[in-house]
Amino acid sequence: MGSLFRSEEMALCQLFLQSEAAYACVSELGELGLVQFRDLNPDVNAFQRKFVNEVRRCDEMERKLRYLEKEIKKDGIPMLDTGESPEAPQPREMIDLEATFEKLENELREVNQNAEALKRNFLELTELKHILRKTQVFFDESVPMVYKSTSTYSSNKYRRYLQMADNQNEDEQAQLLGEEGVRANQPGQNLKLGFVAGVISREKLPAFERMLWRACRGNVFLRQAMIESPLEDPTNGDQVYKSVFIIFFQGDQLKTRVKKICEGFRATLYPCPEAPADRREMAMGVMTRIEDLNTVLGQTQDHRHRVLVAAAKNLKNWFVKVRKIKAIYHTLNLFNLDVTQKCLIAECWVPLLDIETIQLALRRGTERSGSSVPPILNRMQTFENPPTYNRTNKFTKAFQALIDAYGVASYREMNPAPYTIITFPFLFAVMFGDLGHGAIMALFGLWMIRKEKGLAAQKTDNEIWNIFFGGRYIIFLMGVFSMYTGLIYNDIFSKSLNIFGSHWHLSYNKSTVWNNNYLQLSPATSDYEGTPYPFGMDPIWQIASSNKIVFQNAYKMKISIIFGVLHMIFGVIMSWHNHTYFRNRLSLLYEFIPQLLFLVVLFFYLVLLMFIKWNRYAATNEFPMTEACAPSILITFIDMVLFKNSKAPGKDCNIYMFAGQSFFQTIFVLIALACIPVMLLGKPIKIMQARKLANEEVQPITGASDAEVGGMSNGGGSHGGGGEHHDEEEMSEIFIHQGIHTIEYVLGSVSHTASYLRLWALSLAHAQLAEVLWSMVLSLGLNKEGWLGGIFLTVVFAFWAVLTVGILVLMEGLSAFLHTLRLHWVEFQSKFYMGHGYAFQPFSFDTIIENGGAVTETE
Questions:
Q1: Crossing angle of helices 731-755/683-698, nearest 10°?
Q2: Is 550 exposed, middle or buried (0-12, 13-18, 19+ CB in 10 A)?
Q3: What are phi and psi of 316, to 5 degrees?
Q4: Which residues cross the membrane (predicted)?
Q5: CA distance 5 to 2
Q6: CA dist., res. 227 & res. 222, Å (int)
Q7: How many CB atoms lie within 10 A of CB 57?
Q8: What is the distance between the terminal CA atoms of the chain, rounded to a whole angstrom?
């Protein structure tokens, strides 16, 4: 079979590269993405490898680029991304790149340091401007006033009176009165007060005021005023709200204490002259300096912006170049040096069909490096299990991801992905069948497919969106198949389409139909034309309130069993392809044949009974082939397994549906029972006989050395290709494993068949939820009349649409998706799929760049 149905054939090759040409050759292989290198130095520390210095240089360049990227994003500058991938630079170009990045980083750091210093100076001048402006109000007050502090301590315990005269007068005095006020309020006692002014963060102000009160025992006087506009922190650029304060005190001791408290609360103190003329002169000087600083800051920011804009044009390409260089040297660290130190030796897994393509890439690399010694690619013989490589495109990639999530296929094992492309959306649609909901899903998938180039270019970290976009083709197919099953069910938003006209004719009047909940139509009367609806269900079932669910239950339950049994039989047939490809004759005879017989004689016979019943019994037939004499298939199957005689469903009705049914059922059950010991003991007994025969052939050999006997044993064990090897296992383990697999298959055949009833259950649940939303939400708006009814209908329709998309499409769709996934992983793939392989992970620049340059160590 082609690689679509099995993984690619892989070859282990040995590669010899001249040291001068190794870089260019590995670069070409990285662009190709078809070679997986093995680590030939697993015991060598990562810091002791040959090209560790080059990898460190690349790490340093990446650090500088990340710093530039952070600064560019901080300024909101768009980075040019052409979508093109430049070639990996030559080793000599690393020096130029390092010099360019070093220059940009130093220039940007210098600009940032200067800008930070200017902003810090600007902040200090701004705070000083607010201090001079706010404190002027305090000093201009010349009448006695009562100051009530914002602190709860000062407002509850004391009142202060401060009277200040003109500060130009040499005899200016201020009186600070405490709560006791006895000694301080003595007549004629004038006190000379000192003060400090500063700025503090607004959230620290209450604690700052309490600390002043406690540490100075109430002998200081604090005035504060808020700065309305926030100030920018020069360190991190945050906006900070601050307040201006001025503290009056007496004596050097209090002055020292006040300054220590200000230092502890990180308050900034500024000099504030006592004379009004000095304050005005200082304020004018501050305003002049602020204007000059604004000019310098603007020029600094313009220069910084120009540097970042120039870097943003090339940043993406620089990242790609550096990551490619780093990936190349990381890969070269996996190679071995020969004795002469002039040749690098590598071992790699390559797809067999691509060996010529790889050799051409190696020649291009050699020519580009100017080397005269061609590279040598030798195919090696090995008994190791090769990696599994399934070629995919944008359409099959998502389906292959569903399979690989269960387990990577063993080498050359049958790949379920091509069949899953059809079976997965179909089984989903059986549960999700609705023409309207399927159309919404299909349109969403089609929109992502049509816009995939633009959406793929908009790289995002939103994991949910990436999952939806990655599965756009699955979503589209699930929507299309759901539209098909919706037409089969004749269901669109819980209503039916009358395309071809109903094949039933009502003989009752309208009031009887709408009011009689127990009204039923008989196909034996003239109400039925005798021919079925051309496509899907007849729309008459939409108004059959009493037996609509009964009819749909019987229909959907039976098709669930039919699809389930056919799906499982197909899985068992897939195991035949594995056994024949690997030439595993024992598994073919003692596993595949009894498994298929067991499934066919029991469960496929159950499916045949359904078709026989549908074909032989009808309401229009003559007795005893009427619907009243149709036997229950479930009871018939149970009686068959228990070897019981079935009972007639009615008086004078036939017990069996066809002649010889009892005999055939007995034979079928006996065949199924006979298959169990064959599955349980056939393969282990044959393995035991083969080992015994091999021992008898080896024992008569006399005079043979241990090495010769060992060589014969190894040679005999190497046959069988990719088949199963049991030479290393104990016989007891083989019997145990076979017993587990047999019990799992026999019991699983019953449970897996019942598991497919989830198709019926979820389909009914989906239809009932849609009907509930229609009858309890949208019908309320449709029953209203007039212009108010139109407004009400608009609101109700919007609510109904949100619930439909959110619950029926998203939540029910996710539920049906998970159930479909389980049916494929457990019920289908367990019949043939081992999933014990490991994925082929080639050295590919596209993968490395897509993953953000995270080069993983090869284990």
A1: 160
A2: exposed
A3: -60, -45
A4: 421-449, 469-489, 559-577, 592-612, 663-682, 759-781, 787-811
A5: 6
A6: 16
A7: 19
A8: 32
Cα separation values, 8 from 391, 414, 613, 728, 819, Å: 8, 11, 47, 28, 30
Tokens of 812: 């029910």
CB 497 within 8 A of CB 531: no
Q: Identify the burial level of 627 via C-beta atoms within 10 angstroms of its C-beta, where 0-12 means exposed, 13-18 middle and 19 or more buried.
A: middle
pLDDT per residue as tens digits for the range 31-82: 999 999 999 988 888 888 889 999 999 999 999 999 999 999 988 888 887 7
DSSP SS3 for 814: helix
On whether residue 283 sits in a domain, the answer given is: yes
Give the CATH number for residue 258. 3.30.70.2750
Instruction: Please indicate, yes or no, whether residues 84 and 190 belong to a single structural domain of this protein.
Output: no
Cβ neighbours, 10 Å, residue 664: 15
**CA 418 to CA 573: how far, in whole Å?**
15
d(CA 453, CA 259): 65
Are 198 and 272 members of one domain?
yes
Cis peptide before 624 (omega within 30 of 0): yes
Total residues belonging to the chain: 859
71 lies in the same domain as 168: no
Domain contains 477: no
- Determine contact, residues 10/351, Cβ cutoff 8 Å: yes
Is 89 a domain residue? yes
Domain boundary pick from 380, 403, 422: 380
Q: Same domain, yes or no, for 256 and 277?
A: yes
Residue with tokens 């662009």: 31
What confidence tens digit (pLDDT) does each residue in 213-259 have?
888 888 888 888 888 888 888 877 788 899 999 888 888 888 899 99
Report yes or no on 166 lying in a domain.
yes
- Considering its fold, how many domains does the chain have in total? 2
Let me know whether 75 and 179 are in one domain: no
Of 380, 397, 418, which one is at a domain's C-terminal end? 380
Q: Which of 822, 759, 812 is nearest to 557 (CA)?
A: 759
Domain containing residue 66: 10-108+302-380
Nearest-10 Cα torsion for 478, 479, 485, 488: -160
Tokens 């959406």, residue located: 455
pLDDT tens-place string over residues 163-172: 333 333 333 3
| Residue 548 CB partners (closer than 8 Å, separation 6+) | 541, 542
| Measured distance CA(67)–CA(304) in Å, rounded | 14
